[in-house]
Amino acid sequence: MSREWAGPLGLAACSVVLAMATACAAGAQARPPVLPETARPAAAPVRTSVVPESVPQGGLVIGRTAPDAIVEYGGRRLHVTPYGSFVFGAGRDASGPLLVRITDPGGSALTHRVAVTPREWPIERVDGVPPKTVDPPPAIAARIAREQAEVSAARERDDPRADFAQAFIWPVQGRISGRFGNQRIYNGTPGSAHSGMDIAAPAGTEVRAPVAGVITFARPDLYLTGGTVLLDHGHGISSNFLHLSRLDVGVGDRIEQGQVIGAVGATGRATGPHLHWGMSWLTTRIDPLLVLERTR
User: Where does the pLDDT of residue 295 fall: very low under 50, low under 70, confident under 90, or very high at 90 and above?
Assistant: First the structure.
């Protein structure tokens, strides 16, 4: 925690001695006490900026400052909520320190350094995947590239809504069958690191919004991810839900926490019914499990 700047000093500790004059025979009255200068009210409250000292790989950095301060990270100006919160993500392979520059309303600036805690990334072997999804022919590879570009574009949405500030809930209950960040090997062929958390659940199980947001992408038939929905939570934070068997929402829909958005399935590159829940800050992937564990 670091203090960025301070306004005028608060009230100084003081002791005001009230002297009562001894009543004279003529009935003289005591004079009223006079407060010293140090006991008069301060003109303004103290202002502070709070930035975490460290963050694990794949975690969210949530800080607080004055609502009218300027916060910059990675060459980008971040939104600040009316109550002073701001947020950004640390990627799976981030090494730090992450530099956050905060400029107060008076023009004074300070750069905060956030250390990144490394994590272990075990290898996950996934067998029984359809071969054409592991080594697709050129035409299919081109389709995959187009579809993934559309999804990436939807993740770039960045508006001042602060739905992300709610406490997240599980979109579906079940066993964690795949963890964020682990290296994946499909049918013996190395693939990219896992970008989310897999939750095993029966096909048709309702999937609910972990917090409120706006639907920015909804397609039932992507080649790799099958039924795919993106839910934007504001400030660049979004959730994606993959392999759905049913979609109950459309682009532009406002969704409240706990609302059903679809159903668990095994569409796309999947070996059985489960929900892949991924989260991102813009194009930086973050770990949903860490978001669920967040206490503030």
Answer: low
243 and 102 in a common domain? no
The pLDDT tens digits of the residues spanning 75-125 come to 999 999 999 999 999 999 999 899 999 999 989 999 999 999 999 988 877
Report, as an integer, the average pLDDT of 215-225.
97
Same-domain status, 62 and 189: no
Residue 69 sits in the same domain as residue 137: no
Kindly state whether residues 77 and 165 are assigned to the same domain.
no
The amino acid occupying position 120 is: E
CA R_g for the chain: 27
Q: Report the distance separating Cα 114 and Cα 209, nearest Å.
A: 30
Tens digits of residue pLDDT in 190-205? 777 889 999 999 999 9
All residues at 6 or more sequence positions from 185 whose CB lies less than 8 Å from its CB, including other chains: 123, 124, 125, 126, 191
Residue 41: the pLDDT is 45
Q: Are strands 76-78 and 85-89 parallel, antiparallel or unpaired?
A: unpaired
- List residues bridging with 244 in a β-sheet: 227
CA distances from 281 to 124, 214, 215, 221 (A): 24, 15, 16, 24
The answer to the question of residue 213 being in a domain is yes
Q: 277 Cβ partners below 8 Å, 6+ apart?
A: 171, 196, 197, 198, 199, 210, 239, 240, 241, 288
Give the pLDDT band of residue 3 (cuts 50, 70, 90).
Answer: very low
Count of the separate structural domains present in the chain: 2
Q: Give dist(CA 245, CA 243) in Å, integer.
A: 7
How far is Cα 218 from Cα 238, in angstroms, rounded to an integer? 13
Full residue range of the structural domain in which residue 79 is found: 54-117
pLDDT of residue 180: 94
Residue 185 domain flag: yes
State the residue for tokens 């095994």. Answer: 266
Res. 282: pLDDT tops 80: yes
272 and 133 in a common domain: yes
